[in-house]
Amino acid sequence: MKHFKFRYPGDPTQPAVLMSRREFLVEHPRSPIVVTDLDTGEREEFPIPKDMIVCDVCNDEIEDEVLVIAGSMGYCPKCVAEFKKEYLTPVGVG
Ligand SMILES: [Zn+2]
Question: What is the pLDDT of residues 7-31, one digit of tens each?
């Protein structure tokens, strides 16, 4: 696991962590998507595969490493290289 500081111009600095699929799935267990019908109040669950990680930017399935920024957004290596690389500063190896 590698820790970074993510600093986008004009935004506050956010913590970022590059982790393997395994590490990610331990820290962010997959839970079903729950949709509530506004008319009836009925809740319906849409289970997602337990080991599925999807990039929050391009929606590609992530099979290798995932960069998590601010504890919520997950980026695939391709999107990191494309949009984020220049804003990341390593803060040591964890
Ligand atoms: Zn992506």
Answer: 999 999 999 999 999 999 998 888 8
- Unique residue bearing structure tokens 């494309």: 82
Task: State the total domains in the chain.
Answer: 1
**What is the 3-class SS of the chain, one letter each residue?**
CEEEEECCCCCCCEEEEEEEHHHHHHHCCCCCEEEECCCCCCEEEECCCCCCCECCCCCCECCCEEEEECCCEEECHHHHHHHHHHHEEEEEEC
What is the Å distance from ligand 1's center to 77 Cα? 7
Is 74:66 a contact under the CB 8 Å cutoff?
yes
| Residue 79 domain boundaries | 2-90
Going from the Cα of 17 to the center of ligand 1, the distance in angstroms, rounded, reads 15
